[in-house]
Amino acid sequence: MGDDLEREAPAAAVLPLLALRITAGPVELRGITDDLLGPLAELATDIHDRDFMPFTFPWSLTPAPDMARSVAQYHWGNRSRFSAQQWNADFAVFYDGELVGSQGFGAGHYLVTRTGETGSWLGRRFQGLGIGTAMRQVICAFAFDQLDARYVTSSAFADNPASLAVSRKAGYADNGTELRDRLGQPATLHRLLLEPARLVRYPHPLTVSGLAGFRQSIGLDGTTGLGPR
Ligand SMILES: CC(C)(COP(=O)(O)OP(=O)(O)OC[C@H]1O[C@@H](n2cnc3c(N)ncnc32)[C@H](O)[C@@H]1OP(=O)(O)O)[C@@H](O)C(=O)NCCC(=O)NCCS
Description:
The chain is of the alpha+beta class. The chain has seven helices and nine strands; from the N terminus they run H-E-E-H-H-E-E-H-E-H-E-H-E-E-E-H. It has helices spanning 3-8, 34-44, 64-81, 110-113, 131-146, 161-170, 211-217; strands spanning 21-24, 27-31, 86-95, 98-108, 115-122, 151-157, 173-182, 185-194, 207-209. Helix 2 (34-44) packs across helix 3 (64-81) and helix 5 packs across helix 6. Helices cover 31% and strands 30% of the residues. Bound molecules: coenzyme A. Residues 47-48, 54-55, 120-122, 127-133, 156, 160-163, 165-166 line the site of coenzyme A.
């Protein structure tokens, strides 16, 4: 972790995720520091129509006046629970320097399973432009190349063709279905699994900063530096 980033984001000294940056061509994934919470929440007020729910937890229905607090509390909650046993690495996604949405990669018992789940969203005006495919290809390459992942999983409801198409384009294979309670109605969730050899890579190479601290914080390369959990 560079000294500059620590000065910019002192919390990154204890939570290296906040100083992690992954760049590939026009795509940049940044650990979500406090200054990004407000702008992300603003984007999150317009992701999808109200009669369609793409998420397994319907957080995107939060009324606009409450969204900033809700988004902040979600990320602060993840920070407070971050441990090598269970972590969520959520990133703010920039495309050509503009904030467009969020890409996540989360895992439980990663040191044993080397498996994590991707999840993502874009502000509505940034959808359908290929950005969702690009950011997914980037996070998967990061997981395999920099975090030694064995598998990356994802899931999407059957009526979410854009998300299913992104997974297919990135190389994920079908991994079964399950029925979920979605706002009181049964809904089919498709599970997807990606192996390193099947990843369809983004054409631009990845540049990563803040990697050493992040790897340590999830228990790769010895001590987590986070204390006992
Ligand atoms: C899902 C999401 C991240 C995908 O990102 P995106 O940038 O919109 O997707 P892309 O532009 O990369 O498109 C991916 C593919 O989906 C296809 N697609 C998009 N909408 C589609 C639709 N309604 N029907 C069929 N295919 C569709 C595109 O044609 C494209 O395939 P192609 O390149 O072969 O034509 C984005 O649409 C989004 O944020 N949606 C709302 C939130 C959400 O669903 N999150 C995921 C929860 S599991």
